[in-house]
């Protein structure tokens, strides 16, 4: 089994790349999806967030659910709050990601894509075999972000872009880079060419399955126990 870390800058097309991999029946571990999952009402991360940010009116109207847009606005320009939110959620997101990876391991999947917007920022690139960045030039990124999020002010859009690690630095760190300045068809062609030269060996997958079966089984059991303890703790 080979884990490919997929990342990119905001509005560079990472999600489009992830959708293409999914259309090719390649398992996706989606960090954004897991981030929404772990903050659902009743989850441990949900209680942690309310403990630290509940006084800031971050819940939906007439609902116990967290308004993620409102929470994002609260922490956007506050580094201390952003770090606190990360402490509330990142551990649970990683735990859920590991559970999904183990699930795909037992299915003997030769390739898994771990889709993480902040792959390098939070150091998760240490846990993947290869990394792929979806990139584009600055003008294209700015135009796409303004159109996607209906932002009229260039400065506001640039502020969001600059809040992340520079795209050039991500490209420098990555093993592979996809240039997404063109259309979706062009992107899909590049990703298809990438997969043709990047298909891991089924033999190697089986060998790793035999070697890692026992330690991964123990790890999965530990995660299940950890979940049970959290459910009791926050009941």
Describe this structure in words.
With 235 residues, this protein is of the alpha/beta class. It has 2 domains: 1-13 and 110-191, Rossmann fold; 28-108 and 202-235, no CATH class. Helix content is 59%, strand content 11%. The chain contains 10 helices and 5 strands, in the order E-H-E-H-H-H-H-E-E-H-H-H-E-H-H. The protein has helices spanning 14-23, 31-38, 44-53, 68-75, 79-106, 138-149, 154-162, 167-173, 184-197, 202-233; strands at residues 2-8, 28-30, 111-115, 130-135, 176-179. The chain has a 5-stranded parallel β-sheet, sandwiched between helices. The two termini are 37 Å apart. The mean pLDDT is 87.
**pLDDT average, as an integer?**
87
Number of helices: 10
Quaternary structure classification: single chain
Share of helical residues:
55-70%
Please outline the major beta sheet: 5 strands, parallel
> End-to-end span in angstroms?
37 Å
Largest sheet, spatial ordering of strands: 2-3-1-4-5
Task: Report strand %.
Answer: 5-15%
List unreliable stretches of 5+ residues: none
* DSSP E strands, number: 5
Secondary-structure-derived class: alpha/beta
Shape estimate: globular
Please give the domain count.
Answer: 2
Helix and strand run: EHEHHHHEEHHHEHH
Instruction: Please give the radius of gyration in angstroms.
Output: 19 Å
């Amino acid at each position: 089994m080979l884990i490919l870390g997929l990342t990119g800058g905001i509005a560079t097309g990472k999600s489009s790349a992830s959708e293409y991999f999914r259309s090719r029946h390649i398992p996706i571990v989606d960090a954004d999806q897991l981030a929404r999952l772990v903050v659902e009402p009743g989850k441990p991360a949900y209680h942690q967030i309310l403990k630290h940010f509940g006084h800031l009116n971050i819940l939906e109207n007439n609902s116990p659910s967290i308004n993620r847009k409102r929470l994002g606005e609260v922490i956007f320009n506050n580094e201390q709050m952003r770090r606190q939110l990360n402490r509330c959620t990142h551990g649970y997101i990683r735990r859920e990601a590991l559970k999904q990876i183990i699930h795909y391991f037992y299915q003997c999947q030769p390739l898994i894509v771990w889709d993480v917007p902040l792959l390098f920022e939070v150091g998760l690139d240490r846990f993947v075999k290869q990394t792929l960045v979806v990139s584009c030039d600055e003008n294209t990124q700015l135009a796409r972000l303004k159109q996607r999020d209906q932002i009229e002010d260039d400065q506001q859009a640039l502020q969001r872009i600059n809040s992340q690690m520079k795209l050039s630095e991500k490209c420098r760190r990555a093993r592979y880079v996809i240039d997404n300045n063109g259309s979706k068809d062009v992107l899909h062609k590049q990703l298809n060419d990438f997969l043709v030269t990047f298909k891991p060996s089924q033999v190697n997958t089986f060998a790793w399955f035999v070697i890692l079966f026992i330690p991964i089984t123990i790890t999965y059991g530990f995660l299940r126990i950890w979940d049970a303890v959290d459910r009791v703790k926050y009941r």
